[in-house]
Each structure stands twice: as structure tokens, then as C-alpha cells.
Amino acid sequence: MNAMTDTRIARRSLLASGLFVAFATGAARGQTTTQAPGAPVGVAPGAPTGPTPTNLIDPPHVGVDGLLAIGADGRCQVLTSKTEFGQGIRASLAQIAAEELDLPYAMVEVPFPDTDRMPDHGLTGGSVTLQVVGPRVRRAAATARSALARMGAERLGVRPDAVETVDGAVRVAAEPARSVPYAELVGGKRFELPIDPAAQVKDPANWKVAGRDVPRPDVLDKVTGGGDFIHNVRLPGMLHARVLHAPRIGAVPKAVDESSIAGVPGARVVRKNNLLAVVAEREWNAVRAARELKVEWTDGTPIPPMAEVYDAARKARVVRADTTVNRGDPAAALPTAARRLEAEYRFGVQTHGTIGPSCAVAQYENGRLTVHSGSQAPFDVRKQAAHILGLPAEAVRVVYHHSSGCFGRNGLEDATAECAALAMELAPRPVRLQWMRHDEHGSEPKGPPVVMQLKGGVTPEGRIAAWESEGWVPHSTMNLVRTTAAEMLGADDGPPGSGNWHANSNPPYDGIAAARTVMHRISETPFRPSWIRTPGRLQNCFAVESFADELAAAAGKDPVAFRLEHLSDPRGRAVIEAAARAANWQSRPSPAGGQGGTVKRGRGVAYIRYDNTRTYVGCVMAAEVDTGTGAVRVTDCWLAQDCGQVINPDGVRLQAEGCVIQTVSRTLGEEIRWEGNAITTLDWASYPLLAFPQVPRIEVVVLDRPEQPMWGAGEPAVAVISAAIGNAVFDATGVRLREVPFTPDRVKAALATG
């Protein structure tokens, strides 16, 4: 066996099917990090551009002390509202601070967010933590290092230029034995300094901590389920609660028979408006009471049948339309094309699949509400709780703890808001609210249905003559998704965000002279729409890169060569070429065809520049299609990623692996189903995740650009996976799959119709 195979078996033996935890194994996975060649790295003229996302609320008055704290023992804490839920930011931010402060990595930690202590850097999402917080931490640490050097020089009685900082101490360069540790200079005290925007940061060529693989501080807790998980939080005198969620969309309690739980010791009903819950001293009794309480529900709100959900999206009221590219005159150019194509691509409704159901603990005492939550957005949770409960924001404190699977706006915010409302009713006793599996699958907000229609054509020479596309996506889908608590209480929980569902809806190729894309933001979807890992970019890239492949086939061109012919950005070309090289791509027009037997094999390629402004990803996937059963199996993935300056190479590779595994699962089988207005996929049997025997071999090539800004790695690789798999299926069979997930029934239907 090769090293990669050995590593895969070892990882499979650690965890049960469906739970993916990544940890450092280095080059044994056959993965590489290379410093990208010194070719021009700017955006090519005419390449797609857009606003650089910030996702950052960093008040100007936040100085060094708002980001860094050096304790009496000389250890440093990095303070941020950004949360760690598996993406490795506690390691990367600690590396940045350790590097600029000349501290050992083991002397720096990133504590969990606490809205009473941390600055508001916005929610954790969009792969922007390192992009926007990393430079702030670097400048703050560099400012602190300069100040420490001045303090040390004064203490040691030498000129400032006579000292150096090494391993958490200031020492006289010519007399290393003369030194003073940071703990004696500022330990336990504040710097009282603004962050100096001109602070001299280190040259990456001289890095000792950043830019290298380091152990992550959260791996043991992730593997064992121990440590500071929200599910493990216990407070003295705590009550256990279960909220009864409606079995149908829009239903509310019509009648409640409280006597039906009289036989459950200590259990009682708590009801406020349509928020219906049971509480008990022991958790098992709360579970029993929730099962046994007799409730009559209203019929709820009708929603479109599954077969009509995409038509309903196209007919929904449009709140606004975003034109994401408008270049040339595609309407005039399209009729002149030698070959013209039209296609519609659809992406189904999905749930987050959080392994451990959502949980929260809350207590209202002495006019103050303290909430313990695993939410990715502690300050947004504070804002929503204040809105719902009529409290000033400063009267709400949110303390973060690990959750067990997130990657988007799942049920954590809902459970937290419900728990906060119950804590107000049951004050001053603390309340622990634990959702059940059917609550998580049935009541959390969903990744919404997305549909995109495309038209295009190619010239006799095989170039794209024109591109026209339009899509239908939800309007309010980011940050402040309306909570279940607000709905049940009839309360306001703040204005919704607008979402990023338009992102990457336009083709990423500047070689298309005539292109226009319009994304219609619709007023409603059947379920509360939510951001789920790589919202919009995954769905849109699936359509865009699948259609680009269709145009390549119409032109009789190799899919890799076709993309390169239409792309001038050297960094974009580099990731496509690197992925193709890793896969040993053999140039050919697609599809390959000509295979005997029922199992067909093919390869597909896809490319993205995330948000058209940052991380580049090129990907080749290999897949097998059983034409008898319709089953698709992804066997291999070769992925190249350029996220600029790399802080933790292994962290980038691990994030890419997670992106691949989760999205293969989403592409091949994950889909919410419903009958009438009732969700029927309420457990893991009806909503299965990818099992370990189905995990493909993965090779990740990281293109490191030390002199460039750092960009995120937690989401971009997700975006290319569905398209690359679909293109591999076409390469194998000559049949296009235009609706995710690629279930066996859909594959067989596509094969039957050709």
C-alpha cells in the first residue's frame, strides 16, 4: 500500500461513518505545498472583480489591548469574536501573534469568544477570518513587540536599538545573558496603545512559527467529544428543557393537554404565545414529557410539492435583481454562434447535518441574561436575544463553546434564542435546552432550492461567442435569519441580511467578450433559507462550470485547454494547471466514451476564483458510474488552491479535504424531502451522509504566495466539487446531470433519456 492509502485507513478507524475530523498527518497524504512561481499575480485586465468582503466590525477605538493580552505568566491571549469549529483559526491566529511577538507558539492561545471581553469582528463565515482579522492581529502584535522592546531597553539601561526580542523576552543583542521577560514588563497589565498601522511586521522569509505546520489545540477534544463543548455545560440548579416544534411548516399549537404528562416526575409545561416547551429537573424526564405531551396543531402553511419547487422559485416575487456581469452584447452575439446551447441547472434543499443536535444554556439573573451557545455569531446572537426579549444589548452576554458540527446558520441560533426566552420565564434558574434529532433535521433553516438557466454559444474556432444566464435565489439568507423563537413569540429579532447567493454566478473567464448574468432575489422559499457552507458559490459554480463544460464539448475542445483559452489571470491558470498536472490529465475532447461494461469511468474539471476577488481553486475529480444501478462513486480528487500567504499549510490542506468530503456527500445524496408541508427526512436513515468507504483519495496542492495577502481556505474548495463530479459523469457516460443531488434514480433517468 502507498502512504496515502495507509493514512486513509488509519483515519477511518478513528471515527464512525459520517463524522469527519481532520488532523495533521502532513505529506503522508500525498499532499504538497509549493511556493508559486514568480509570475505576475495581479488580476488580468478585464477579469471579473467585485467588492472585497470584510465581515468585520472592528471599532476604531479597539487598540492593542482589544486584541492581545499578556498575562502575569507571560502567556498571550488573542481576543476575537471569531469562533473555532474545526477550521483551525485558533492555530493560525496564534501563529501570527507568536511570530510577530517573538513568543513560542505554545505560549499563545486563542480563548473562546465572550461578548463581554472580545471585540466584535463579526460572525465567523465566508472564509474571511484570516483575511480580515489576521492582519489586525499582526499589526497589533508588531505594535506590542516594538513597545516591549522600548520598555525592555529602558529597564536594561541601553538604547532601544541595542535590544532584540527572543522567546518572550527582551535582551541586549551583544549580551544575551542580560534580558527581561515580557511578564515583568507588562504581564497582567494593559499596553494602552492604539494599533500602529505602520508597525514593522516581519518578512515572511524570516518566519519561524508562521508558514509552518503546527499542532492544533482542539484536535483531542474533537476526537473524544471532551473539553468545552456546549453539550457539556452544566450550571448549579439547572433545569432541562425540550421545545415542541411544529410537525408541519407554519403550524402552531391549537390545544395542549397538560394532564398528559402528569405521570412524568417533576415535568411541567411552559408556554408563551406559540413557544411551547416542557421542563424538568432531570433531562430524561424532559425527553419523556416532550414525547408524551398531547398537542393539537393547526394545519400550517401550504408549500410547493418537491416536483414544483423550482417552478415556484421562478414565479416568486422578486425583491431585487443583481447583475453580476454585463459585458458586450450577448443577445446580439448569440444568434451568430456556430453552435448554441441552453440548459437549466438545479440545486436541491439541504440541511446542515449537524452531528450533535443544537444546544444552549441560559440564565437570567439580576437584570442580566447570560447565554452559552455554539453559534458562529456571538454578537448577532446577543443582538437577536435583545430584540426578542426587549432587553438592551449590554444586558445580554453570550459565551461561546464548541459545537459538534456547524458550517453555516444551522439550529444553534434557534436553540439559543429559545433557551434565552425560557430562561426569562424561569428566572433565576438556569435552563439547558437540547434539541433532538428530529428537531435538528426538521426545524433548522435550510440551504434553499436554487435554479439557474443558461444560454451560450461557440464560434467556429471553438471560442465562447456569448453567455447569458439568470438565476433565482433567496433574498434574506445571511446573518440574522429569523429565529424560531421570534416566530413562536411573534417578536422582532432584527433586520435580516441580504446574503451572498449571487456570488460567482457569472463565468470567471475574461476571454468571453459578450456575457450577462442576472440573479433574481426572491421574496420567499418553502423553508427558512439559511447560509450553508459556501452559500451561493457552490450552487452557482455548479451551474456555471457545468455549462462551461457543455460549451467545451460543443466546441470539441479538451475541458482544461478550453478553460485556459478563456482565462488570462495567471493565478487562475496556475491552479487549473496544477490540478491537471497532479491528476496526470491527458488532453482530449470530452466525453471519453468507448468503455465496455456497466461501470463507466471519467474525469471532470472545475475552477473558481472565490467571490471573483480572492482564493483560487482548480479541481479534477474522477468518478465511476454504474449504469445498471445509477450509483455514482467518486474515486479520486486532485485539488490545487491558492489562498495567498499561507500561515498553516497543513491547516489549508485539511480544510480542502473537509470541503471535498462534505461536498461529495452533498452532491451524491443529501436532500431534504417533504410531503405536503411536513419534512419527512428527520433522521440519518432518511438523510444519509457519506460513509467512510465512499471517501475518495484526495491530493491537495497548496500554492503558497508569501508576499501576497492571506485569504481564507474554509469554503472556496467546496464550490468546485459538484461541477467537477458532474463533468466527470459526462466524461464517463456522455450524459449531463443537471440536478443535485445525483441520486441513483436521477442518474438512471438521465441515462435513459440520453
Please tell me how large the radius of gyration is. 27 Å
Number of beta-strand segments:
28
CATH topology of the largest domain: Aldehyde Oxidoreductase, domain 4
Low-confidence stretches: 1-30, 38-58
Describe the structure.
With 754 residues, the chain is α/β, with parallel strands linked by helices. 28% of the residues lie in helices and 22% in strands. A seven-stranded mixed beta sheet has the order 10-11-8-18-15-16-17, sandwiched between helices. α3 (89-101) runs parallel beside α4 (129-156), α10 packs across α11 and α17 (649-668) crosses α18. Mean pLDDT is 90; it is low at 1-30 and 38-58.
Main attributes?
754 residues; alpha/beta; Aldehyde Oxidoreductase, domain 4; 3 domains; seven-stranded mixed sheet; six-stranded mixed sheet; 19 helices; 28 strands; 22% strand
Question: What is the fold's blueprint, element by element?
Answer:
Layout: H1 3-12, E1 32-35, H2 64-67, E2 68-70, E3 76-78, H3 89-101, E4 108-109, H4 129-156, E5 163-166, E6 169-172, E7 175-181, H5 182-186, H6 219-224, E8 239-243, E9 253-257, E10 268-272, E11 275-280, H7 283-292, E12 294-297, H8 309-315, E13 318-327, H9 330-333, E14 339-347, E15 359-365, E16 368-373, H10 378-389, E17 396-400, H11 412-426, E18 431-434, H12 437-443, E19 450-458, E20 464-474, H13 484-489, E21 515-522, H14 537-555, H15 559-565, H16 570-582, E22 599-609, E23 616-626, E24 632-642, H17 649-668, E25 674-675, E26 678-679, E27 697-704, H18 718-733, E28 739-740, H19 744-753
Parallel strand pairs: 1-27, 3-4, 8-18, 14-28, 16-17, 20-21, 24-27
Antiparallel strand pairs: 2-3, 5-6, 6-7, 8-11, 9-12, 10-11, 13-21, 14-19, 15-16, 15-18, 19-20, 22-23, 23-24, 25-26
Helix pairs in contact: 3-4, 10-11, 14-18, 17-18
